[in-house]
Design a protein that fits this description.
Blueprint lengths: L20 H6 L5 H18 L1 H13 L5 H50 L2 H6 L2 H14 L1 H28 L1 H8 L2 H36 L2 H9 L3 H24 L2 H12 L1 H14 L7 H42 L21 E8 L9 E8 L4 E5 L6 H7 L8 E6 L2 E2 L5 H7 E5 L9 H6 L7 H10 L3 H5 L18 H15 L3 E5 L7 H15 L3 E5 L11 E6 L2 E6 L1 H7 L2 H9 L13
Parallel strand pairs: 3-8, 3-9, 6-7, 7-8
Antiparallel strand pairs: 1-2, 1-4, 4-5, 9-10
């Protein structure tokens, strides 16, 4: 079925489509036991806390009027014990709930990162790096309060409200009705505020992603060099200021959305004690039953105790609706289709020989575009070498991407030792195919750590042997910290040729039987190219080698040379055969012919 999979394209997404609540709740499923413990602590804390007003009523109606010192002491101690118990339960509840929330945050971050590791190369060519970073940092970070405390706050406040209302009814149902008359209005207001904040939050996160992308691009080493050499530092600063200014407005709107309406709820709830006293007095004047002082004070105490969890519950509802926008952005990434997948029963090759075949291969980047490669039939025997040349845009690099499955073919197949590369497990393919490209990437770590990325368990002797083979050991040894020297952001401490040789040393350390060289020397000067070419010759010895060449001086000794033109094979043969044919290759050679500074022609026929 994967034979006909199209290349990756961003899926259409309805921004207003709600996130299923069950999907959010599923994130907490692995922690059911701890959440149950949180629920028990919350329930126990709520039940204990509502005991205080009843103890207070007994103090005011029984112990003090009856001058019962012993009972007064016991009731006072009971109120103190209630406060201590509630506080202890609260601390334990916070510890467990925060741990669960942080574990859920960890699971989300890891899931998004793992998903991005599986995305095809096309995804990253169409997505700004800062946007990806913003999803992991800003969006998931913005959910921290919701994930770590909202669920617990919801359960805690809901339990408190239910327990308090039950206690109020037990004291006097008429006063309870008066206290709860405006509750439906409060719920309606909070839902309106929540929807408003959700929309603003979605816009704010997009703005934060845009600003993060700008920072990532303009404050990288390459971005700084480009900005300063082009005299655009002030312009970039102004652009960043404009982006930041837009974020300021969104942040203010997000924080002020519904603030007056929520404040009105707080004012009304705070004024409820006065309404209770007024209602009690009115009932007494109308000839109704009198309320004891203890009952009134206890009821007002409960009613005031109802204020905090009710307002918090309404605010939690607003916060949850706001967080739905963040969950939606995270789930967008988790739901991205993965075009390049491992088969259900992958083939594993213990010791690949390295034979590569292209069988009637066709490839297109876009289903509606003309094919980039069409009808490619090639065989590179194990240990053999193939060079691919041609004008810019002829499909050379695309051909090299198909061997390590950076892209999948859209027609035909590519095989390793007779097995379709799409049927191989990822580990086998990664061990079998090594890639050295023109764009060498080095981590901001030591030289040794960069080399060990290819083989984490490599010894110091193995690292040194690989560096010697790549003609870079002497340079590393001359550095102040040797192999412990930091290479700098993207390896800017090293020249282009030195970085290429480090990349070659890294590949030598991995020791793959198949080597793909994608224009590995095209950006180097002649002297540096010669040094790097020596390292490449050392690396290529005994390996199946596919060389994508811009400079023809690097391919004349290949077993077979293929000339691509508009995605098709225009010529094939050895260097001498193609020169004798006086076709496209010969024309490329004449165009590429040049002299070294010493006057020696390096591209002689």
């Amino acid at each position: 079925m994967h034979r006909d999979d199209p290349q990756w394209t961003p899926p259409p997404k309805d921004p207003d489509e709600p996130v299923p609540l069950r999907r959010i709740l599923a994130l907490f499923r692995p922690y059911r036991g701890r959440l149950t413990l949180v629920g028990l602590l919350v329930g126990a804390s709520s039940l204990v806390s509502v005991a205080s007003p009843f103890l207070l009523r007994e103090i005011l109606d029984v112990a003090i009027p009856g001058r019962r010192t012993g009972l007064l002491t016991l009731l006072a101690l009971g109120m103190i014990a209630t406060a201590i118990t509630t506080s202890v339960f609260g601390v334990l509840q916070t510890l467990v709930s925060t741990t669960v929330g942080q574990r859920v945050m960890h699971d989300l971050r890891t899931a998004v990162y793992a998903k991005l590791q599986r995305m095809p190369l096309a995804f990253f060519t169409r997505t700004r790096t800062g946007e990806v970073q913003s999803r992991i940092a800003n969006d998931i970070g913005g959910m921290q309060a919701t994930v770590t405390s909202t669920a617990t706050s919801l359960v805690s406040n809901l339990t408190s409200v239910i327990a308090t209302v039950c206690a109020m009814v037990a004291l006097d149902w008429r006063l309870t009705v008066v206290s709860l008359l405006l509750l439906p209005l409060f719920v309606w207001i909070s839902r309106r505020v929540g929807k408003e904040r959700k929309k603003i939050t979605s816009t704010r996160q997009k703005q934060m992603a845009a600003m993060s992308a700008m920072v990532t691009e303009s404050l990288s080493v390459s971005g700084i060099l480009l900005g300063r050499t082009m005299g655009r530092a002030d312009s970039l600063t102004q652009s960043f200021a404009d982006e930041s200014e837009r974020l300021v407005g969104l942040e203010v709107r997000a924080n002020m959305a519904g603030r007056w309406r929520m404040a009105t709820i707080g004012i009304v709830m705070a004024a409820m004690p006065a309404l209770i006293y007024w209602s009690a007095g009115l009932v007494l004047q109308l000839g109704g039953p009198a309320f004891s002082l203890g009952t009134l004070v206890a009821f007002v105490s409960l009613q005031q105790g109802l204020l905090r969890p009710t307002v918090s519950l309404l605010s939690t509802g607003v916060q949850m609706q706001t967080s739905l926008a963040l969950f939606q952005r995270i789930f967008e990434y988790l739901d991205l289709p993965v075009a390049i997948t491992e088969p259900a029963e992958p083939v594993r090759i213990a010791a690949p020989r390295g034979e590569i075949r292209f069988e009637n291969v066709m490839f297109r980047y876009d289903p509606d575009a003309a094919p980039t490669l069409d009808g490619i039939d090639l065989t590179v025997p194990a240990g053999g070498s193939l060079a691919v040349v041609g004008p810019t845009g002829s499909g050379k690099s695309t051909l090299s991407y198909l061997v390590p499955r950076l892209y999948d073919v859209t027609g035909g197949r590519v095989t390793l030792d007779g097995t379709d590369v799409r049927d191989l497990d990822f580990d086998t393919l990664a061990r079998a195919v090594g890639v050295v490209s023109q764009e060498t990437y080095l981590f901001h770590a030591s030289v040794a750590d960069n080399l060990r990325f290819a083989k984490p368990d490599a010894t110091d002797d193995e690292i040194e042997r690989a560096a010697r083979a790549a003609q870079i050991h002497d340079h590393i040894a001359a550095l102040p910290d040797g192999y412990d020297t930091l290479v700098g952001e993207r390896g800017h401490r090293f020249s282009g040729g030195e970085k290429q040789r480090l990349a070659i040393a890294r590949t030598i350390l991995r020791d793959p039987p198949v080597l793909v060289l994608d224009e590995a020397t095209s950006a180097l000067d002649t002297h540096t190219e010669h040094a790097v070419q020596q390292a490449i010759d050392e690396l290529s010895a005994g390996r199946t080698t596919l060389t994508i060449a811009h400079r023809l001086s690097t391919v004349r000794d290949a077993d077979q040379i293929v000339v691509l033109d508009a995605g098709r094979i225009a010529e094939r043969g050895t260097h001498d055969e193609l020169l004798a044919a006086e076709g496209r290759y010969a024309a490329l050679v004449r165009r590429d012919a040049h002299l070294t500074p010493a006057g020696e022609q390096i591209m002689a026929p």
